[in-house]
């Protein structure tokens, strides 16, 4: 259970206190305000270093790490792509990325279901930011809480796997609405799982009408050239406010 945003946690009994819902709203606003201040500081730091930053979000098992492994192999200037990886436990994903030749630092969040801007600061000390071409933040697998937390990124990419079904954008609209780019992964399995592309694209367009949609297979490499082009175009757009 998340101990920082308090999602789903019961409210402790307090005598003569405001209602639990009011206290939860006040706490949430304070947390996001502090996070936004740190995120703004990080964004200035990234800008000073000339470093674009991609925040990669999705549910667990959608293929974030596999996508990064493929990007590490295919990205022009390979070896200058680095990653910060968030998980509740283990450093499995960071070890996978390092084995693929990507400099990676793992953040284990314990019970926290998302990364916050302040969590990135110690990890950033492990990199020579000026030497990197792209920094990717692989967020904790979760389609709820991470949507609310700015990490100072230049571009927010939300990943949807065909195995999840095409209705996820409607079920988790805040996450997809926050996306600058939506990627449909595991497209090589679309026929096997009876994935309806048009159905999924309509749902994405309903909640994220301005976000480009790219279909890829991290396993086969299908669509990766288009994804690189979309990332490059997105990074060339005006920075997030």
Task: Describe the overall structure.
With 241 residues, the chain is α/β, with parallel strands linked by helices. The protein has one domain (20-236): Rossmann fold, CATH 3.40.50.300. Helix content is 37%, strand content 16%. It has eight helices and seven strands, in the order αβαβαβαββααβαβα. Strands 3-2-4-1-5-6-7 form a seven-stranded parallel β-sheet, with helices on both faces. Helix 3 (92-99) links the parallel strand 2 (81-87) and strand 3. The two termini are 31 Å apart. Residues 8-18 have low confidence and may be disordered.
Write a concise keyword list for the protein shown above.
241 residues, alpha/beta, Rossmann fold, 7-stranded parallel sheet, 16% strand
